[in-house]
Inverse folding.
């Protein structure tokens, strides 16, 4: 089912949490909403669920305008960050709760609950249905929460940072699980997260938000490789920012010069990712396809998967990741021109 | 499955205006019922206290006015009010003097039998008071304290101590010890630190305890009835006597006077104190 | 004897002369004996005027005309067993009403909210039991304000007005009115401690307000409700001023009234104390039951 929101507005006193947000969530797709804290992503999700009365705008499930419906009548299902599994009910009762409210027969309820448990792959655990949530691990609890949401066959599945409470290893594994499940069930899913790696990994569409507004929408590759503005470029990946001035001859960054053939003129922001730059000893010359900047390597940290170098260029501290360590001292930073994002400064 | 959900919450699926009107009417009715329930007994008191004559079955008094107020404020009621107030003040002061140091020790130090001590103060509220106080009256009689102000003060303290001990222990415990340690570190003695750091920080608790104890003593009935009779009268006992004696105007005035400190405090507490203190009021 | 080598030193330790220097910790006068000394006066009051009389209840209940005997208990059984059941019955009915109303009302206050009603229900907390007694007398008496108001609307026969006061119903109404405020405070506090996400999950799956109360709020605050119930039940069993004022002249009476009348009108300390012992046992029974229910459940 297609889900659309048009012109959503939500204010808390003087703070505007949603500032005229309009989006389309494709049917059977997983749309990740990504952004820093306070960008409005959780507000958007909760207004889809009906927990939040809006100050303006419409929400459409298919052709139906559900804006005025209370949460009980919308037939959405939410997976909460803290799972919200009722501690006084067994796993079975937790999952069956929504089904019982819909007045299904006992046999029907049992069949669907077992199917849901198999779907989230904890049906094999002995006696799992009679256990209480407190007796399960975090990962298992999240699977039960997923099962509880999927078993009622909602029109939209809403996920509120469901994996952020879990250990890093469990999170990695469950990400793939969530994507597999979503594809298998084919349900329109809205997934809120602040973890960009997660958003890029599982989403069909990524929506980047900031300050109550949508910054960019697109596939994960679109948003990562072709960010439309400085915020998007800076938010995704580990990014570096430099200020410069563009004119007909090229870009000047402080006292240095970089070739440039784009249309912008005047003050600009230059963004590139830590993994796109290559560090070399000083003395390497520029060529047409690379920008070359001179700087001073001040600090180096070992991250396990790479070495992170902190290089000072024209007063800014840049982060450059590489597999081989480079020694302290003067260095050159080479970035392929195609990987340099240049935006007009506001 | 959508249909089952909709059918189950059919009321919610009503078009908006119908739902909101129905809900608003229900809400208003509920509020009216609540107002009636809470104020019906109290309003009768208010009406009776401003009544001069009222014969059954008229819905309203035939003559109203301050007649009985003038009559009683000179007589026994005023004396009962005075004694009750005086006793409550004495009880409050003595209780605080006896319990605040103890509460501080209980909060900060490994006092032997700590749990048992705290429990002892709670016992007068865990068991029926009347039979116990009947026997206590005999003990006070033997000590020549029955029917005297001191006897009543003592019997009030039996039940009042717990409010101060438990409240002040919790309050002292909630003050971070590092605040006192900073004072010791700078050279202040323990006693000086107690008076200049701990006690000022515990002021909300002191206020709460004072109010709880004062109100408990002012409203106390059972012990006063047994120990105070016949010479020491407080307002509750006076009110009881006039009520069963069918002097309804006088009794209602006494009842109103009894309620006033409580209602004033309700307003104060609504704004300043935490609800756990409020729940102790319910046991008065 | 006073050579230069023996010149007396003005200050034995140079540090002591540094301004502001003191030993790092103040001397701690605490000893267990000190604490017991501070505890003694307030404890003494409770021991002398509660513990000792409590024990002498036991003692006196076994004495009659100076002799050791069980006759007092026999008398209690003969005269007062109906009153025991009457007291238990009234307390139980009142408790069920109080908890039932509070559970639903607080559910509404928690899920929908109504600040004025919430404030209203705090008022009885500050009305002393004796005033409740008098107020209910005036309101519910055969010639009380309620009946006279109803008579105006024609709902009551003037010559035979119902007497709600002076009956078990009057006592129940008074006990419920007064205890409802405390119950609302405690139950609402327990409901507010239930995390919102549990309620949102239920709402999300389709639960109405009533079902949220029944399926989530009540089960998750059950321990607090049990504590509140145990406390209120014990206090209702032991109520004195209210049944004294509303109970009416005819038996059965609530137990505390019986004790009072036995002392005041029959001067019979033995039976009165035996009846008192029975009331202590009932109170302890309730407390024991409550302790058992909260310790049997696993954490």
């Amino acid at each position: 089912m297609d889900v659309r929101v048009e012109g959503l507005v939500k204010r808390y006193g003087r703070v505007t949490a949603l500032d005229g947000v309009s989006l389309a969530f494709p049917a059977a797709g997983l749309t990740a909403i990504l952004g820093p804290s306070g960008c409005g992503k959780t507000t958007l999700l909760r207004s889809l669920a009906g927990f939040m009365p809006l100050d303006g705008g419409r929400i459409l499930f298919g052709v139906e305008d559900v804006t005025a419906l209370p949460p009980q009548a919308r037939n959405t299902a939410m997976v909460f960050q803290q799972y919200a599994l009722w501690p006084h009910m067994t796993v079975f009762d937790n999952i069956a709760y929504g089904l019982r409210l819909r007045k299904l027969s006992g046999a029907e309820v049992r069949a669907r609950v077992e199917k849901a448990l198999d779907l989230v792959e904890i049906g094999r655990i002995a006696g799992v249905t009679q256990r209480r949530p407190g007796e399960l691990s975090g990962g298992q609890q999240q699977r039960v929460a997923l099962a509880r949401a999927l078993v009622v066959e909602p029109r939209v599945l809403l996920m509120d940072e469901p994996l952020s409470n879990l250990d890093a290893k469990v999170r990695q594994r469950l990400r793939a699980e969530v994507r597999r499940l979503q594809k298998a069930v084919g349900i329109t899913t809205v997934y809120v997260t602040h973890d960009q790696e997660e958003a890029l990994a599982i989403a069909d569409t990524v929506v980047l938000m900031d300050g109550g507004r949508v910054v960019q929408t697109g596939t994960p590759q679109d948003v990562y490789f072709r960010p439309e503005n400085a915020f998007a470029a800076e938010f995704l990946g580990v990014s570096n920012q430099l200020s410069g001035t563009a004119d007909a001859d090229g870009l000047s960054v402080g006292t240095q010069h970089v070739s440039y053939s784009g249309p912008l003129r005047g003050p600009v922001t230059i963004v590139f990712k830590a993994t796109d730059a290559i560090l070399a000893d000083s003395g390497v010359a520029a060529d047409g396809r690379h920008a070359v900047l001179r700087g001073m390597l001040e600090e180096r940290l070992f991250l396990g998967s790479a070495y992170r170098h902190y290089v000072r260029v024209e007063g800014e501290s840049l982060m450059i990741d590489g597999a081989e360590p480079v020694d302290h001292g003067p260095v050159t930073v080479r970035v392929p021109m195609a990987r340099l994002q240049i935006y007009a400064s506001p | 499955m959508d249909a089952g959900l909709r059918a189950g919450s059919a009321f919610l699926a009503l078009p908006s205006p119908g739902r909101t009107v129905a809900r608003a009417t229900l809400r208003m009715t509920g509020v009216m019922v609540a107002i009636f329930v809470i104020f019906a007994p109290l309003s009768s008191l208010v009406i009776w206290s401003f009544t001069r004559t009222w014969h059954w079955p008229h819905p309203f008094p035939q003559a109203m006015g301050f007649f009985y107020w003038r009559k009683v404020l000179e007589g026994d009621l005023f004396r009962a009010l005075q004694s009750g107030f005086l006793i409550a003040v004495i009880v409050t002061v003595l209780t605080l003097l006896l319990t605040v140091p103890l509460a501080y020790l209980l909060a900060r130090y490994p006092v032997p039998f700590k749990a048992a001590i705290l429990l002892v103060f709670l016992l007068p509220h865990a068991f029926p008071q009347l039979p116990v106080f009947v026997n206590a009256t005999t003990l006070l009689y033997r000590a020549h304290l029955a029917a005297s102000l001191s006897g009543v003060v003592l019997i009030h303290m039996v039940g009042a101590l717990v409010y101060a001990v438990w409240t002040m222990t919790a309050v002292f415990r909630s003050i971070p010890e590092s605040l006192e340690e900073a004072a010791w570190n700078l050279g202040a003695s323990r006693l000086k630190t107690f008076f200049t750091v701990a006690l000022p920080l515990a002021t909300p608790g002191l206020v709460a305890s004072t109010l709880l104890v004062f109100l408990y003593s002012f409203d106390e009935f059972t012990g006063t009835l047994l120990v105070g009779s016949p010479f020491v009268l407080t307002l509750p006992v006076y009110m009881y006597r006039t009520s069963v004696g069918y002097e309804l105007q006088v009794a209602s005035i006494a009842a109103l006077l009894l309620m006033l400190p409580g209602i004033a405090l309700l307003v104060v507490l609504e704004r300043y104190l935490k609800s756990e203190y409020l729940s102790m009021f319910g046991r008065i | 004897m006073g050579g230069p080598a023996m010149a007396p030193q003005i200050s034995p330790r140079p540090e002591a002369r540094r301004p502001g220097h003191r030993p790092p910790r103040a001397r701690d006068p605490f000893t267990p004996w000190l604490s017991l000394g501070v505890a003694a006066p307030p404890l003494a009051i409770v021991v002398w005027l509660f513990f000792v009389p409590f024990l002498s209840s036991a003692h006196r209940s076994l004495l009659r005309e100076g002799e050791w005997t069980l006759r007092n208990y026999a008398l209690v059984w003969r005269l007062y067993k109906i009153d025991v059941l009457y007291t238990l019955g009234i307390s139980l009915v009142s408790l069920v009403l109080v908890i039932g109303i509070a559970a639903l009302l607080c559910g509404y206050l928690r899920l929908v909210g109504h600040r004025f009603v919430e404030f209203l229900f705090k008022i009885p907390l500050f009305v002393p039991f004796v005033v409740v007694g008098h107020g209910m007398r005036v309101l519910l008496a055969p010639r009380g304000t309620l009946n006279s108001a109803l008579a105006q609307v024609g709902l009551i026969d003037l010559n035979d007005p119902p007497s709600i006061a002076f009956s078990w119903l009057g006592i129940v109404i008074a006990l419920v009115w007064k205890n409802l405020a405390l119950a609302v405070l405690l139950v609402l506090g327990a409901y507010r401690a239930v995390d919102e996400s549990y309620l949102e999950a239920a709402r999300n799956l389709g639960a109405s307000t009533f079902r949220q109360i029944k399926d989530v709020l009540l089960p998750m605050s059950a321990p607090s409700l049990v504590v509140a119930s145990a406390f209120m039940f014990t206090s209702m069993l032991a109520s004195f001023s209210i049944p004294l004022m509303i109970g009416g002249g005819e038996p059965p009476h609530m137990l505390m009234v019986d004790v009072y009348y036995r002392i005041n009108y029959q001067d019979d300390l033995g039976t009165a104390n035996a009846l008192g012992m029975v009331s202590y046992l009932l109170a302890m029974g309730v407390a024991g039951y409550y302790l058992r229910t909260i310790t049997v459940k696993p954490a």
Observations:
- Residues 238-344 of chain A form a domain with the OB fold (Dihydrolipoamide Acetyltransferase, E2P) fold (CATH 2.40.50.140).
- The radius of gyration of chain A is 24 Å.
- The longest helix of chain A spans residues 168-185.
- The mean pLDDT of chain A is 91.
